[in-house]
Specification:
- The protein is 34% helix and 18% strand.
- Strand 4 (125-126) and strand 5 form a beta hairpin.
- It is built from seven helices and eight strands; from the N terminus they run H-E-H-E-H-E-H-E-E-E-H-E-E-H-H.
- It starts with a helix and ends in a 13-residue tail after the last helix.
- The strands form two sheets. It has a six-stranded mixed sheet with strand order 7-6-1-3-2-8, covered by helices on one side.
- By secondary structure, it is of the alpha+beta class.
Length: 221
Amino acid sequence: MKTIYSLLLISLLSLALTSCAQNKPTKKESTSKKEKVDLTNYSKAVFASGCFWCVESVFESVKGVQEVISGYAGGDESNPTYEQVGLGQTGHAEAIEVYYDSTVVSYTSLLKVYFNSQVVTQVNGQGPDRGSQYRSIILFNNEIEKDLAEKYIAEINESKKYSSPVAATVEKLTKFYPAEDYHQDYVINNPGNPYVQGESIPRIKRAQKLFKELLKPEKVL
């Protein structure tokens, strides 16, 4: 009986250590974003697909991407906090804003990165992170992005590659709210965090294997 109880306890502890919410950082746990650069002439794209720590690092490894900001989008609450979004009551999802050079990487290529860095059929979550705040959304800035995203999803669904349809929705971006400074570059600044070790890094490695031609060599894990 003691052996069964011990195994159950270890299992529960392991689950806790692989949850983004359970590993919520303090402001002292990471440094702020690297020195800001002029992003005026870069194109912008906004995506959501689970914990923004993971997604930010995935997109920062892509050629032509100058900067990625972690934040919140998809809801109605103005200036939401991490705690508010984490409760799943703001309508927002953890999201990222990608600044990229469209002469180097196309929006369609960013969609390839997006869909190959998540479980495309998982509804309201990614991996151990569950709830509407972790749902998958493509937040378009214009009709061109909308059409490209809808076409990409249609092609995946028509391919019958998956037994369930793509979970990501395509929605018009109303406002992107940058997250608190201590969330920016979180994987880089906190490599020893249990969630980063158990979930973020494995997810990044799995994703990078699927679009090697788009990667910055120095960013390959």
